[in-house]
Design goal:
alpha/beta; 17 strands; 12 helices; homodimer; four-stranded mixed sheet
Chain lengths: 364, 364
């Protein structure tokens, strides 16, 4: 493991789409939605412990989620936990991590990753990430891991590569032509049949000085806020500095702020199996263990009759689930909320919007 | 209040039809299913406290439910709590109470009532019961309170009176011709249009010596078990006596064992509004507070969208219920079980039968 290789885990998301299991006070990355025995964050941390030195893993999250990170990764050193006063999307988060790393190691090459992916094939993941780190450490490139698409999924981002039809056997690193966020299904079908598009994993690999240069070019309104940060680190004004930087900062994603504009975007084709489980619907889709009618129940005691295509989950796995007559439904039972609705993301969103009503904030 | 008037509340039922809220360890009569602030049993006790001297109210239940009665009626004297070792339906329960009362007062006239009715019009109830007690105290009759039927409900018992079409304005006590338990809807329609049938409330009024005589005539296999009971009461062998009587006793209802056979059955027409809430479906039907789409939610925080005809209840009223897309469903959420099924009694029964499976007994 190269001591120049780092990993930055972005764990500040507030994700309401796994409501009511995910809450503002306990977002998805801290949960074990897929019932694996570990939270998404913990899985992510352990995966990267195989790839970069443990001391080179940083976690960025918001202040109020800091204790959840400390609880789930007790071995994380305090100076590897970067706390944002406010969530400002991914670009400020990456700036914060980049300037912090550059102070430690001007030769740093970093993976930047969300904390809420499901990754299968850990070995392939490790090989892909190591290769992408090696590749990017010696070049002035912003590399994104691209995944071979298997269906026209409208919930993913798509990356078009230059040079025509992508040859999957080739596994060549390709220049990126365009980024497209969540197209509709029809457009996604066109993308896939063209052979020029891969899924955007949201995992980036780059030298810290490369991303700094492109952020300073395309996002000076963000990077100027971090001017002098290298001196503030570890000083009495550290907290005040970050508070000020974030309170003045715009909310902007690295995709929109840099990746869609830079000429240095490259795609590294990954081989591991990956899913961005963003919604109950997508969780339902990736669960392998369904009964013959396509139902998923998570409890130990289940009485099911005449159900199909339904996902029925209780936070309390000792609870008896006696369910009948549901077709394509989601049922999520937590200690203080019960969600029952058709298995479409829109419905869940309808409800979470309703939580702005007076008296309902406690369920956010 | 006449000191000769008594009330016997039968509170031994195991009712699984309000499952999963009712359990073997906490049957319906101990619950506040209709959310009134008091259990069915407590309501029954308080109603009869207005009609007979408080010391003249007896509660009969099974051993294992004794503490629930003590908890809900702390003012009940211990010798007014009759504990059956086993549930043996209503005839042995009534025999037990009858012989106990006769030892105290040979001139006793008693109301025998289930503990799980919903009664509206408390004043009418009081007048009706007082009148029925007066009427029965001076005659050798077995009086049943009959209710004017308002619909051909197949879940009720029907009583046919002698003398043709019943005149509701008359309010005459009538001789009973036949008893019919839960006819199908078509037959219930014929009953109602004939004008000769009333609903059987299951509330009986009679002199203790009258019911004793008819039980001894039609149920000697039951009454012989209580021979000598008057001497055992209060003696060291009291418990052993009852244990032996019940272990030898058949299971039989007073309707089948006596009322359908006796020539002394009379119907007292009651005026109070009454419902025998035996199932979730019947509870749904009697709840007045429905939203415009016919839904009933019991929680403080509800997000409802595109539901109709559904009953959604959580034992935890602070729980948020976010429900969408249900049509004619029942949702019952308790601490350790979640029932979701179409709003028909059969479904609930299907599930409770399933609780005989190994590993599921805890949810009975």
């Amino acid at each position: 493991m190269s001591s120049n290789f780092y990993c930055v885990i972005m764990a500040g998301g507030i994700g309401t789409r796994f409501w009511p299991m995910s809450r503002a006070s306990r977002p998805k990355q801290f949960l074990d939605i897929a019932d694996t025995g570990k939270s998404f964050l913990r899985h992510t941390y352990e995966r990267f412990s195989q790839i970069v030195p443990q001391d080179n893993i940083l976690v960025v999250t918001t202040d109020r989620l800091g204790n959840l990170v400390r609880e789930q990764i007790p071995e994380l050193k305090e100076n590897n936990l970067l706390l944002e006063p406010y969530g400002r999307d991914t670009a400020p988060c990456i700036a914060y991590a980049t300037y912090t790393l550059l102070k430690r190691n001007p030769d740093a090459t970093m993976v930047v990753t969300p904390a809420d992916h499901i990754i299968r094939d850990n070995d392939a993941f490790k090989e892909d990430l190591q290769a992408a780190l090696e590749y990017s450490s010696t070049r002035d490139v912003l590399t994104t891991l691209g995944m071979m698409p298997t269906r026209p999924d409208p919930n993913y981002g798509y990356i078009q590569v230059s040079g025509g039809r992508y040859n999957a056997d080739d596994r060549k690193v390709m220049k990126v032509k365009t980024f497209t966020e969540k197209p509709d299904v029809e457009l996604a079908k066109v993308f896939i049949s063209s052979g020029e598009f891969l899924w955007n994993s949201g995992i980036f690999v780059w030298r810290a000085d490369s991303i700094r240069a492109e952020m300073e070019r395309y996002l000076p309104e963000v990077t100027r806020l971090f001017r002098g940060w290298e001196n503030a680190i570890g000083s009495p004004v550290e907290d005040m500095f970050i508070e000020k930087a974030y309170s003045d900062c715009i909310k902007i994603s690295i995709d929109y702020g840099v990746m869609e504009k830079t000429a240095k975007a490259w795609l590294y084709p990954a081989r591991f199996r990956w899913a961005d489980v963003g919604t109950w619907e997508s969780l339902y889709n990736i669960v392998n263990v369904k009964d013959k009618d396509g139902n998923v129940f998570n409890a130990k005691h289940v009485l099911s009759k005449d159900n199909s295509g339904s996902l029925v989950i209780s936070e309390n796995k000792d609870k008896l689930l006696a369910v009948s007559g549901l077709e394509d439904f989601i049922v999520i039972d937590t200690e203080d909320a019960l969600l029952i609705c058709p298995r479409s993301d829109k419905r869940v969103k309808d409800f979470t919007s309703g939580l702005a009503m007076p008296g309902y904030e406690q369920f956010k």
